[in-house]
Amino acid sequence: MQHPFQCIASLRTAQGEQDGYLVTACGPRLVVLKVATSEVVCEWSAEETPVEPESKQDDSEERPAKKQKTSNTSPENDTPVAGKRQKSNKAPPKASNIIKLTVSPSQAHIVAVTDDKSIRVFSFDPSSKTLTELSRRCMPKRPCAIQVLPDNATLICGDKFGDVYSLPLLPSSEPEVNTPQPEVTPTAEQFKPSATPLTVHSRRNLAALTQQQKQKNFTPRKDTLSAFSNTLLLGHVSMLTDMLYTTHQSAGESKPRNYVLTADRDEHIRISRGPPQTHVIEGYCLGHTAFINKICRVGTSNLLVSGGGDSWLGVWDWLNFSLKQKFDLLSSVQKIAPEETQVAVSGIWSIGDGESAGVVVTCEKIKALFVISRTALESGSGEGVQTIPLSHCPLDVVVTDDAILVSTDARAEGEKRVICGKLGESGWEECSEKELEAANAYKGPERLITDKEMDAFLYNVANLRKRGPLEEGAAEEAEADGGAEED
């Protein structure tokens, strides 16, 4: 089984249009391919970097004694045998998969997020065909969205805990890999449980309380943020799902204003001012009744498209916080998969600009692309949807000036993992396969992974959906919030 490319990005060098590169993430490996010659230029792997363990036991502390079972199999009668060490049943740490990938506006740096919560910055040298890791910074929570600002010096990152941070793209002028600082033993008081035998009655809870009373201080949390420069910009009380930094210049203004748009699992889209005034909330776009997974600005217009667990896409005038349309997406999905009754939007990408602008939408485990024009978004008409069937489920999309590249979940040997096409007058036209031969023929080291593990890694958007009474309560809360009405 070949590993699909879970993330892809386009890279242009200073030499011009002829030197286009495709950056792909294949499990823990970062692979750079030259499109014109269809060759693998270089690659980097997280398997070759040391994995930092989550916690270490102080060697000065006494190791726990091994328990030896007596003839009675009851766990209460287990007696420890001093001086013997327990065998560890933990499997060796696996290499960290790449979960997010982006390129700086200057095309000089590649930023990748691995599932060990690390943000890694790379530089690519086309002349020497080398990919160099310049920095690695470990965040307290797993990042869910990253973006390099137009100044090419600042990186903003949103994490699953609801926080958005700003940090320099490169921590110093000298390329070096940051490692977490060692833990410092705190001077906190000895841990004492608040419960007592008078307040705990069940046998199991009494046993747990006894273990807590015998326990030493908890291992202190690592202050990973103290290892590098960072600024907390804003925070949500819910799980953050997407983030977008954008600018807008109104008529009569001398310079554009900056904004940070964030979306969360609790159906909120927040419009905040850009740094350094991100604490100022301009307003909210309210109206969704299920989780929001993706937000996307349509070109440079005032339209914002959002999607997630609802059967429709939200089309917003984000500057005025008003919902213009609820664009029906489920009907288009059911033309490809009639058995589907719910939608889980996995990606939204802007295509074109001006009146010809639109969006490309993908849904989790749906083998199709949905291309929707700006006119259709504003009118709510389903006639403006162009459905492009695919052989496999799309994982990531890159929109260039003249083509659309799609990474698909093709796991069988010999199947195309990346396809390229153009939107012509006659519809979707696939590009020449020759330019993508190297990408589709790439094998890399063999990894032992089952289809079930692969599905769990690639498909997790639907897990954001609230179940049972919580989902019904979310719908009632959205109505109480007074979401904007359709025009």
From TrEMBL:
GO terms for cellular component: cytosol; nucleus; tRNA methyltransferase complex. HAMAP family: TRM82. Residues 53-65 have a biased composition (Basic and acidic residues). It is found in: Nucleus. Residues 44-99 are annotated as: Disordered. The keyword Nucleus applies. InterPro entries: Trm82 (IPR028884), WD40/YVTN_repeat-like_dom_sf (IPR015943), WD40_repeat_dom_sf (IPR036322), WD40_rpt (IPR001680). Coiled coil: none annotated. It comes from the Eukaryota. WD repeats lie at residues 285-317. Pathway: tRNA modification; N(7)-methylguanine-tRNA biosynthesis. Keywords: Nucleus, Repeat, tRNA processing, WD repeat. The keyword Ligase does not apply. Required for the formation of N(7)-methylguanine at position 46 (m7G46) in tRNA. In the complex, it is required to stabilize and induce conformational changes of the catalytic subunit. GO terms for biological process: tRNA (guanine-N7)-methylation. This is Uncharacterized protein. Belongs to the WD repeat TRM82 family. PANTHER family: TRNA (GUANINE-N(7)-)-METHYLTRANSFERASE NON-CATALYTIC SUBUNIT WDR4, WD40 REPEAT PROTEIN 4.
